[in-house]
Amino acid sequence: MIDRLHFESLKCFSSLSIELSNLTLLTGANSAGKSTIIQSLLLLHQTMRENEWSKRVLLNGTVVKLGTVAEVVNNVAGRLSFGLGVCSGRNTIKWTFEGDVRSEMSMKVREFLVNNNVQQSLARLYYLVPEDVPSEIRQIASSIRGLDYISAERIGPRGLYSLADKNTISTVGARGEFAPSLLFQRQGEPVPSHLALPDVPNTLLKQVQARLGILFPGCELSISEVKGANYVLLQFRNSPANNFHSTINVGFGMTQVFPIIVAGLVAEEQHLMIVENPEVHLHPLGQSYIGRFLAEISASGNQVIVESHSDHVLNGIRLAASDKKVDAKDVCIQYFRLPDESDKRQNISIKLDSDGRLDVWPNGFFDQIEKDLTKLR
User: Fold this and answer.
1) DSSP-derived pairing of the beta strands 106-114 and 117-118
2) Best label site of 32, 77, 103, 335, fewest CB within 10 Å?
3) Are 118 and 160 in the same domain?
4) Are 260 and 276 in the same domain?
């Protein structure tokens, strides 16, 4: 598990060290740095996935596109380089990336440290890590390379979905584009017993359907291959009396939450899962439930990082702690704010107790409803 990230001269951060836990909720003001936390891991992830022998970090790839060196390096604290450190247990690795000119769209690895010791051999890097590092160091890189990322811009309803090669696709994809294919290919496999809903057959298909049924009462799904076309047809209905309909006719909410549920139920133990705005197109009940669901996924031995603006997602996580679905000690809430003259802190770390109560409630933290209601009284 990644315990902490450290940044130097990266985008809006001149210097920042941030704690992560089994379940980390990133929330707060727009343009305060939440996305940068996620993008730092995605820069490493996409470079490792797209060029395993690369000695340069890709600022633009299939997962994230951040532009040029000038747009990535902090324009006050940095010039042409930034630092990124990742801590896991007793081990810390740190990269320093450097560009030659501000208009470049990749940056070379200038320095690599293991537990503050400079690694001299950078001639050959394997997944951005020198070949001769200990196995526990390589394991940190491996977890980043294999992470599952679901962006806020997920694909909407489609008539048909591409059928991907099951030997090369193990995640639902950044936009959820592979979720129907993954479900079709693994529909008969069991989900981990501690995630399986009782009184429901323990197959991926039935468990996904049951989870969707909580959000959309009466929901049933059907998935089938379109022979000879390399596509699958995903259909839903809300009652046995109705016909199945393509996702085009069932609304956005179902297609937006579908890849999150599939990804959570197929995640192997010790997997890193990053989800942006899981609340998209969900009503408040659904938002609360997806917060609880992601808490359950983290409690099953995985690490989950969630970015959200929804107080319902937050409260779903709090309820999961209160109901002992997740250990409150394994939850960390990072609230990002725009610093002012009286308080320069860019983030405030918030903890839960076993009843789901917060140890601090900063000004601006999910208090807009109260502020608005006060004006209406």
Assistant:
1) antiparallel
2) 103
3) no
4) no
| Site of tokens 């959309």 | 216
Q: What is the pLDDT of residues 4-59, one digit of tens each?
A: 999 999 998 999 999 999 999 999 988 888 999 999 999 999 999 999 999 999 99
User: What residues pair up with 48 in beta bridges, in sequence order?
Assistant: none
286 and 262 within one domain: no
119/188 Cα distance (integer angstroms):
46
Question: How many domains does one find in the chain?
Answer: 2
7 shares its domain with 77: yes
Residue 347 token pair: 């983030």
The residue ranking higher by pLDDT, 324 or 169, is: 324
| Count, residues in the chain | 377
Nearest CA to 317 among 297, 301, 300, 302? 297
pLDDT digits over 260-278, tens only? 999 999 998 889 999 999 9
Give the domain-ending residue among 215, 236, 268. 268
Please give the share of the chain, as a percent, with pLDDT higher than 70: 99
Q: Are residues 107 and 216 in the same domain?
A: no
* CA dist 344 → 16, 338, 340, 341, 377 (Å): 12, 8, 6, 7, 33
Secondary structure of residue 371 in the 3-state scheme:
helix
Buried b (16+ CB within 10 A) or exposed e, 114-138: beeeebeeeeebebbbbeebeeebb
